[in-house]
Amino acid sequence: MRRYIGRRIFQAMPTLLLLTVITFSFMQLAPGDFVDAMIDPAALTANSKELLAQQRAALGIDQPVVIQYVNWVGQLVQGNLGYSFVYKRPVLQMIAERLWATMQLGGAAIIVAVILGVLAGIVSGLRPYSTFDYVVSVLSYGAWSFPNFYLGLILIYVFAVQLKILPSAGMLTPGIDDFGNRLKHLILPVTALSVQFIGLFARQTRSAILEVRAEEYINTAHAKGLRPRRVTLRHILPNALIPIITVIGLSLPVLITGAIVTETVFSWSGMGTLMLNAITARDYPVVMGTVLAVGVVVLLVNLGVDVLYAVVDPRSRYN
Question: Could you read off the pLDDT of 270-316 as tens digits, one per residue?
Fold first, then answer.
């Protein structure tokens, strides 16, 4: 297992390097820079242009692109993501303050989506063409067709504006910091983020269950007189779990990046709002740092899924 994990980590290194190249390149292709965002072009004079050139030189953004990239990567290797042009603070410190909030939202949505989606899919797969199966199928297709930001706006209008039973924004009520208050603020954004994936996991789990049930060894198990419950627990579910884990693993990066959009809708103080504010202010060190941090989180999640896959199906360690 250690060799398998080490091999997966080694394989992730080129992906991480490519991520740094893409992130830096897109920032260079963006029009303007932080200095341009601070001034009014109509008020430029000869003296002000010289001062702006000095400001760019002080920030190091007047150097050739290759030099800027090498310097940035060199700082990354030392654990330094640079300093914010706007807030004059270390980018790593700003990300550390916001990352936990994003992990709370994304983690809660993952747990809800996996539990509800997989359970609904298991029941549908074990009772195909029943009333429950038809209801789950219709709801799954409907859930998957709803973008999370649009569903978030609907939830805010219904439960916060009309019914006034849940908060519409923020992580907690000012002056009230307890578990119950934080849980109330989690309900709407987690619902908006997880509904799509509940539908996806339910459909994929149902398909996996039906596929395994049609295998010859399942018919043989029934023919030997094994109880249906034993056949389900010992043969159907373990074998159906392999494609389910694959689907969940492929969906996790989308779910994590979707959390960034959901944060904006619900004013959640996480990586999403930090990135949006940085893009607006052209605070490129913060933008590159947040994109890189999200990419690293996605790589770590994929590594965890690979390890889980290897535990469920040991044959994958040798592929």
Answer: 888 888 888 877 788 888 888 888 888 878 877 877 777 777 766 65
Cα separation values, 6 from 10, 13, 87, 301, Å? 6, 11, 38, 15
Residue 88: Cβ within 10 Å count = 7
- The predicted-structure confidence for 245-268, as pLDDT tens digits, reads as follows 888 877 877 777 777 788 888 888
Q: Quick one: what percent of the chain has pLDDT higher than 90? A: 13
The residue length of the chain stands at 319
116 CB-contact burial (10 Å; exposed 0-12 / middle 13-18 / buried 19+): middle
- Cα–Cα nearest to 72, from 290, 298, 289, 297: 289
**How wide is the angle at C-alpha 152 spanned by C-alphas 120 and 290, nearest 5°?**
100
Domains in the chain (CATH in brackets) are 2-77 (no CATH), 94-318 (1.10.3720.10)
Taking all residues of the chain, what is their mean pLDDT, rounded to a whole number? 81
Q: Are 125 and 270 in contact (CB under 8 A)?
A: no
Which string of b and e fits 121-132 if b means at least 16 CB within 10 Å? bbbbbbeeeeee
Instruction: Please state the φ and ψ torsions of residue 108, each to the nearest 5 degrees.
Output: -65, -40
Please name the residues in contact with 20: beta carbons below 8 A apart, sequence gap of 6 or more.
69, 72, 73, 76, 292
pLDDT for the residue 131: 92
- Residue 121 Cα distances to 132, 235, 244, angstroms: 10, 17, 10
Q: Which residue in the block uniquely carries the two structure tokens 């009772």?
A: 127
CB 247 within 8 A of CB 201: yes
Going by C-alpha positions, the residue among 296, 271, 286, 303 that lies closest to residue 18 is: 296
Q: Name the CA dihedral angle for 143, 146, 152, 158, rounded to a multiple of 10 degrees.
A: -70
Which residue in 170, 164, 163 sits closest to 185, CA to CA? 170
Question: pTM of the entire structure?
Answer: 0.77
